[in-house]
Description:
- The structure holds two protein chains of two kinds.
- Chain A is an all-alpha fold.
- Chain A has two domains: 4-76, no CATH class; 83-383, ABC transporter involved in vitamin B12 uptake, BtuC (Orthogonal Bundle), CATH 1.10.3470.
- Chain A is built from 17 helices and two strands.
- The longest helix of chain A is centred in the N-terminal third of the chain and has 32 residues, at 40-71.
- Chain B has helices spanning 2-32, 39-59, 64-91, 100-120, 147-169, 171-181, 183-188, 193-219, 226-241, 246-266, 272-286, and strands at residues 126-127, 221-222.
- In chain B, helix 1 packs antiparallel against helix 8.
- Chain B is built from eleven helices and two strands, in the order H-H-H-H-E-H-H-H-H-E-H-H-H.
- The termini of chain B are far apart.
- Chain B has a single domain (2-286), classed as ABC transporter involved in vitamin B12 uptake, BtuC (Orthogonal Bundle).
- The chains are: A mainly alpha, B mainly alpha.
Amino acid sequence: MFPVNELKRSLLVSIWFAFLTFPIMVIKVDPIERIVTWRWDNMFFVAIGSFVLSILVKVYFVRKERRAGSKKAQTALTEPFVHRILREPRFLYPLCLACLAFAILFPHLFSAYQTNIMTTALMYVVLGLGLNIVVGVAGLLDLGYVAFYAVGAYSYALLNMHFGLGFWIVLPIGGLLAAFVGVLLGFPVLRLRGDYLAIVTLGFGEIIRLILENWNDFSQGPSGIANISRPGLFGIDLSFSASINYIYYLVVGLVIFTIFVVNRLQSSRLGRAWLALREDEIACQAMGIDKTRTKLIAFSLGAFWAGLVGVIFAAKTTFVNPASFTFLESAIILSIVVLGGMGSIVGVILGALTLILLPEYLRALAEYRMLAFGGILVVMMIFKPEGLISNVRRSYQFKKLPSSESE
Amino acid sequence: MDYFIELFFGGLTRGSIYALIALGYTMVYGIIGLINFAHGEIYMIGAFTSFIVATVLSIYGFPLLAIVVIAALAAAVWSSAYGVTIEKIAYRPLRHAPRLSPLISAIGMSIFLQNYVLLAQTSDFLPFPALIPEFAFMEPVAHIVGSSDMVILVTTALVMLALTLLIKFTRIGKAMRATAQDRTMAMLVGINVDRVISATFVIGSALAAIGGMLIASHIGQINFYIGFIAGIKAFTAAVLGGIGSIPGAVLGSLVLGLTESFATGYVSSDYEDVFAFSLLVLILIFKPSGLLGKAETKKV
């Protein structure tokens, strides 16, 4: 199966990578003590690793070619297994009930620590679903999504500190403020083409973070705002563990609400307009869709959810500072959407749970987490741009009538 | 007045470093229409490579001139190698994919490279050896313009000159211009487009590496995160000048450098990066084609 030629090529690849990574991986200098450490073992690992990887990639392509030859792209049109199951009410309702039951029982089955992690993961589910509206459905690459998250978190922190407003009042305010900021940013920016939009949103996200970091009178600078009050439940004083559970249930509720809304939106007139906009802007305008308005709605709706989660984040940690809202946070949320499958709700949920829970439980790998995020983005784009669970558009298939004479 | 001149030269220095990075963005964008998000990381890797090589050589007692030359060469060689490899792995398979795919892949590459350097080296700030000596003839003006500012300005000017000559008069330069104009047509007249793209990445990366080494020795410290901000700013400069246009990138970089220098000097240094980003947002809103860029009309 493997001609010598291919092996020789993989060998060349591994030599190339050994050369490439030589200064960074092998040499480590201590400029103060003036010591040089040569880590030759790293070079060995790089060479072996790249050799194996290059063979694997080759095997993958050979296989793919063979499959394409035998089955003639038949797989492209079939829906992924998960979606087919979800279409059947027979499976859908029991499955939903099971998930719900598990979600409700979770805090009673596991420790408070686990519940806390799960709450975080679920918050990312909502963030992912929110960004999914913007990136996955409407096709606007937003790299500054974390800015809206920050707006939500800071609006609760500040309103709580200055005016003593409670969680439940600020929750909608935070969401609306974020949506408002989204419109404010979106108005001038949405005329831009895809990649320019990406960079401007990135710049905008950084501006928000830098302002929060430097405007001490407004946001207390890098030290952040502490002692934000936890959400109240009709004035009942909750114990620490009860409040963890309370926030957990709150987030579960938010997730259900989000799934419901996003799901309804996707098959609505607006949702179809978004899809059309993603596929072809010009054709879409020719069909009479108001481009700016449709894009703005997508932008502000996405921002709205980020704002809601921001408020919950501030309430959960009782502390906010600008360091929580860096570009990397945006990148994590983006990788959730990309990994899960752009546009697919189930995909985004799975993506969020994998990307947030996996590093939590694989503590040893935690420092490689960002490396993996970067790698995932690249690998997914190359091998499976449609994500874990691809979203197949509803389409009509024309079947030839058996008795048809024409053609 | 001295303060003004000091700020002016500071701005020029800054601007010329941005120009070295911005050229890579603009050349790649001109040829394959991709915002090479990982370009800032190439610059960072260039700075790191020169840091490692220079420190090793100085520990082994090489003379300063040899250190500078070898470190610069090493930075250029390895950065170009990274540039070409990144293009092969992350961009080439996506050349016919929808527009967002290569951009996401580029962002992934950028995060990957940052963390690769973070894990393989360190997250601390490292002191960069002073590679540029204080020249005696600069003594009378040293309080306004430092020697390293001068070296950066002169080097950048020379590099720009070399680049202009390369693009105007050599075979590969001609091929690059042809590919930038129309890739399919260039292919039809027998230009090996893959090779031209690789060459573009080599040149862009080498320029960024030189920029990385110069600025690192000017500032005196490096860290794995320097590429992110520098990359965004250089991109801003490229857009400001009109992305795809080489003189535009230089002009945009100088304008950005001067703006930043004066804004931090006269207004506030806390908001240095805010000025750059605001400038970027404003340009894109009011003049998306940039100072020297051609306005694009899209045919349906």
